[in-house]
What does this fold into?
Amino acid sequence: MKEVYIDRGITQSRIAVFEDNKIKDLYVENYDNINITGNIYIGRVENIVPSLGAAFVNIGIGKNGILHIKEMENADKIKCNQEVIVQVIREDTKDKGPKLTQKISIPGKFMVLLVGSDYIGISKKIIENEDRKKLKEKAKRVYVDNYGFILRTEAQFVQEDDILKEYLFLISLWEKNINKAVYIKPPRLLFDVRDFFGFAIREYIKGDVEKIYVNRKNDVEMIQNMISQHLHKKCEVISDEKIFIKASAIEKQITEILERKKLLPSGGNIIVDKTEALTVIDVNSGSIKTKDCKKQYILNTNIEACKVISEAIRLGNISGIIIIDFIDMTDEQERQIIIETLTENLSNDKVKIKIYGFTQLGLLEMARAKKGKSLYELILKQNSINTYTTAYVLKLIENQCLKVLTHYKKSRIPIKINADILSEVKSRFSYFISDMKDIYGIEIHFNPSETTEYFEVIKKKVEE
It folds into this structure.
């Protein structure tokens, strides 16, 4: 049974997909460090560097985005101060701005609209030739000139009319934004593809989801209405005390993902080390009791590691170059088993992955495309492996206060909080206290402390 928990927070929001009470997918966003991949901007060309074949475009986020000139419309006529409509296809990094494109795509639940294209495609995840053929026939019947599209996996479970309805809606949405662009002075966000609820329903509420839990009671009706437009089956939307169980499961999962050392069932472990250039994962064995089964034990431990590694990569949203040092295997057939096992475990990943195989040193090389920020960036402060971001700390406070309100019926809650964190709350998250009162009716009273690591909700002294 699949369930989804949508936790809309004040400083941080999460989406978790539960299957048989285990988290299979996790999405986190901070409102002070939000993912912008997919967002569409009207920008201004600030600089052109022919030797790099790139234009640097101001989209209003601080760092100029990078747009390859060869991808631009009328590339030979590009000039500084020119207005351009661009879409972010890769997040910015410490040294580089976001990567941009003028090949605009708008995601829906059943398709991805390709603006200015005549391409019609089918998701590669739909494997059966007969299914692909039927969808291709449907696609040709609904196609409109200058608006190509790629049908997503959910398209195989709906009628042609549903595909057409969404197709025309996405075209209309884009044309409204184009008309709006005439009156907007760059740089400015033109279209927010990552609207939280729209993103949650589009990417995570599939036909096999039976229940949706939400943390805010007043969001239930809105989500029900949004879902009714996309799903044919009834999907129960709930906001009750079970949300605390779901929230606790998410916190536990986040803690486990961020742990450097992860245990394997056999007694072995993996060590995950992230650097700016790449991620290195080391697989270690437990104690081997007999030499006779050493070879089989090593293979089994490496197979176990494939599952744990794939979860760490997917749930932690680790991207870029990944090097895995499995326990030494000299048999080429065994190495192939590991490649196939890892490939299978990563098959449900939404992000593009390439496994290159083993090097001469016996290290497995792979790469995962960057899509949004990693969990490490959202939960831990930069250049720290054990200090939480203030956005995450405030989310923990929000959830604990909501639990106190529900279980103790208390709405005035004093909280001891680290003095440095409180200083950052006042400078960057000054809205948090007022939002807690407006949204939940909870009055927070922060008391600075030099000895408290993060915070402490004082339950016993709570008074109305």
